[in-house]
Design brief:
Elements lengths: L2 H13 L3 H12 L2 H8 L10 E4 L9 H18 L4 E6 L5 H14 L3 E4 L6 H11 L3 E5 L8 E7 L8 H12 L12 H6 L3 E3 L2 H12 L12 E5 L6 H10 L4 E4 L25 H10 L3 E5 L6 E7 L2 E4 L2 H18 L8 E5 L5 H9 L2 E5 L3 H13 L6 E6 L3 E3 L9 H16 L5 H12 L1 E10 L5 H14 L4 E2 L2 E8 L4 E2 L2 E2 L9 E2 L5 E5 L4 E6 L5 E10 L2 H18 L2
Parallel strand pairs: 2-3, 2-4, 3-6, 7-8, 7-9, 12-13, 12-14
Antiparallel strand pairs: 1-5, 4-5, 9-10, 10-11, 13-20, 14-15, 16-24, 17-18, 18-22, 19-21, 22-23, 23-24
Amino acid sequence: MDARIQEVVAAWQRGCTDPGLKAELDALVAGDEAELSDAFYRGLEFGTAGLRGTLGAGTNRMNVYVVGQATQGLATYLNNHYDAPSVAIARDSRNGGEDFQRVAAEILAANGIHVYVYPRIEPVPALSFAVRHLGTSAGIAITASHNPAAYNGYKVYDDSGCQIANEAADEISAAIAETDMFDGVRRMDFDQALAEGLVEWTDDSVIEAFLDAVESQSQPGTSNPDFKVVYTPLNGSGMECVSKILERIGVTNVTVVPEQAEPDGDFPTCPYPNPEMRDALELGLRLSDEVHPDLMLATDPDADRMGTAIPHDGSYQLLTGNEAGILLIDWLCQMKRAAGEDLSRKVCISTIVSSALPDALAEEYGFEMRRVLTGFKHVGGQIDQLTDAGEQDRFLLGYEESYGYLVGTHVRDKDAVVASMLTCEMASWYAARGTDLVEAMDAIYRRHGYYLNGVVNVSFPGESGGERMAEIMAGLRAEAPAEVAGMAVEGTTDYAEGAPMPCVGGLQKDGPQTLPAANVLEFRLAGGNKIIVRPSGTEPKIKAYLFSCGATREESEAVQARLAEAAQRLLS
C-alpha cells in the first residue's frame, strides 16, 4: 500500500474515538487492502456542492470527522468575512444526519458563530428560506439529495440562500486543507451551546413563513376540492410541508403511500429514492391503481425534486423533468396573459442541458429564456441579478431537467413544495377543461415539434476512475468527433473557455452575459440535434445529454436511440 495512505490510516488509528467508526476502521485494516485504500486514498472533495459520499470510516467517506473538518474550515472562512457570523442548519432523513447536524452546530458555536438549528427534518428549500428569513451569513444542509441510502452529504449556502460560488468554495476548501481532522477542530458541548445562547432551535414560525411564501405563488381559482392526489415523500423530508401546502390551497383529498410516509434513511422500499426513476414510484403506482387519483406526486428525500405520474388511457405515464418544466412554463404564461401581465418582461431560466423546447415557447409567448450552467446556484444567481435591479417580479420560473423547479424568489434553490402545489393546480385546471397533463404536453409537442431528451451515464468508480474521466474529456477536446451517430458535427462549444449565455426572446435588456468556465463540451449536430458531455459533480461518472427533434415522436425517438449508442462509444 502507498506510504501516504499508510500514514493517514495510522493517524486515524491514533485519533478516531467514535466507537462505531473505530470498529469499522479495525475491520478495514484487518481486511481487504483495496477497500482500505479506497476509504483513505483521498479526502472527499469540497466544492460548490459541498461534500457528498458514502457513509463510513475514512477520509473518502462521510463521517463526523470529515464533517467536523469541513465545518471548522467553514467557521474560519465566516470569521474572516463577517463581524458576527451566523449559520442556519437543516437535515433530511438520511442516516447520520442528526449526528452531523449536531457536530456542525457544536463546532460553529465553539468558534463563536451563532447557530439556528431546525429541530426536526425539513426540506432543503426550507433551509435556503431560513438563511434569507433569519439573515444568516451561511446555511448548511445535511443531505445527499436523491442518492442511494449509503450516501450522505453536506451542502453549504451563502448569505443569499444560494449554494456557494466557486470563489467561496475554494477559500473554504483551502481552510479545510489546513485543518487537522482530529487536533485542529474546535468543539463545545451542544447542550452547553444551547444554554449559552450560541445555538438555538429554529422556531416553527420560520416554516410557517416559508409556507406563506410558497402559497403566495398559488394561482387563484385553479384548485378543485374534489381533486384527488396520491403522494409519497419517499421516506424523506417532504411530508410536513407538502401536506400543509396542499391543505392550504384546498387540496385535501390526499392519500399518502403508507410504507414511505415516515422518515427512514435506509429507504427500505426504494434503495434509490429518486423520483426520476419508475422503480422508486412503484408503491405509489400500486396505490394509485387502488385509489384512482387525478395525479400522483413524489418528492425526493430533501424535497427539492418532484416527480409526477399522470393517469392516461388506463395506465400511469411519468412526466420527464423537462416535460414538467415545459408544462409549468406554458401554463403560467397562460395564467399571466389572462391576468393582463406583459409577458415580454418575464424571464425564465433553465440550463444548457435542459430541453430546447422552452426556446420555442419564448418565441411563442414573448418571454426571455436564459440558459445557465448545470447547478441551481446558477439559476439563483440570475434571480439575484433581477432582485438587485428591483425587478424580481420579472422572474417567472426556473427549472432543471433533473426534476428541480422554482417559482417565486423566496429561496435560491429547487423547491418541490412550490412545484407540488402548482402542479396540482395546473392538473386541476386542465382537468376542468377535460384534458390531462399528458394531453396538454402532446399539444405543445404538436405546436413546436417533438423535442426529446435522454441521458447516458458511464460510471468510473474507484481510485482510477477520476483519471479515466479526465482522459476522456481531454481526448474529446484534443480530437473532437467529426460526426456523431451518422450526423455531422456542425458546431462545438467548449464551456471550459467561457461561453456566451444562450438567451432567446424577451427584452434582453441586461445585455449579453458570459457563463463561468465549466468542464462541459457541446457538439451541435445536423438537423437541430445535439449532444453535451460533462462529468458529474457529485458522482464518479460522465454524463452525455442527448437532444433530438422530429416532426413526430417516432422520428425523434429513433434519433435518440442512435445518439445513445453513439454516446456509449464516445465515452468508452
